[in-house]
Each structure stands twice: as structure tokens, then as C-alpha cells.
Amino acid sequence: MATLLYNNLPALRPSRAFSSVLNEMLRDTLPTQTAPSHSFIPQADIVELEQGFELHLMLPGVAKENVKIDFHEGKLTVTGERKAPEAVENGPKFRRVESGYGSFTRTFRLPDTVDVTAIDAQLQDGVLRLALPFDSKKVTKHQIEVR
User: What is the largest CA-CA distance in the chain?
Assistant: First the structure.
């Protein structure tokens, strides 16, 4: 026999969700930055396509001239800098800084199947897109027929 519970009291719902109240309480206890940082780590997305990999690095506010891409011993390294706004003595003051400023470095180990001589890089709308095509000359899998 199953037990049925009956609640004759209407459900009391707070005017704000519990998670928003908790977030607000915790936000006040966390240390906040009031000045731009000296370095940051940009977020990266890697997509595998039929013709190769595509690497998307989120770099809002970074100029093309401030990005350097190197390949050495199987590792692709992207370095650069996002300059922080200049603090003026009588100008606006930072109250909270959540954006990343300063220098950055991200290193990715590439598989042997990538043709490093055909890597293409484009920086558009704050996203660095690196096309990492597969090397069609390399044989990564081959089945040998037995006679």
C-alpha cells in the first residue's frame, strides 16, 4: 500500500529564487579586483572538422599586431597582450574589474596529422580562428591486403 501525503498549506514561494539570494550573499564575501590584472588566460574552443581542426581563441579587444603565433616541437603557442585602459587621475575609477587585461600565453600540443605549414589565422570580432588542416600526405591508417 502506498502512502499519500497531503499538504493543505499553500506553497510559500520567496519573491526571489534561492540561488540569486545565495549569489548575492557570496558576491559580497568574494575578493573583488578594483584594478586591471597583469595577465589572463583566454578561453579556447577546439572543433574537429572533416578537413582538420579549428581552434577559436576568445581575444576581445586585442589588436592583430599584439598577437604572435609560433610552432615549435609539436606545440602551437599563441602569445599576446590586451592593454588595460589608462587610469586618469581625475577620470573614472574602476569599481569592479572582471575583464582580463595584460599578457597571455596559451600552448596547444598538435597531433602529427596536422599540416603545420598550412595553418591559417584570422582575428575577427574578438575571436582568433586558427585553421589546422590535416596533412593529406601523411598516412595515419592503412590496411594491407593479404595475398
Answer: 85
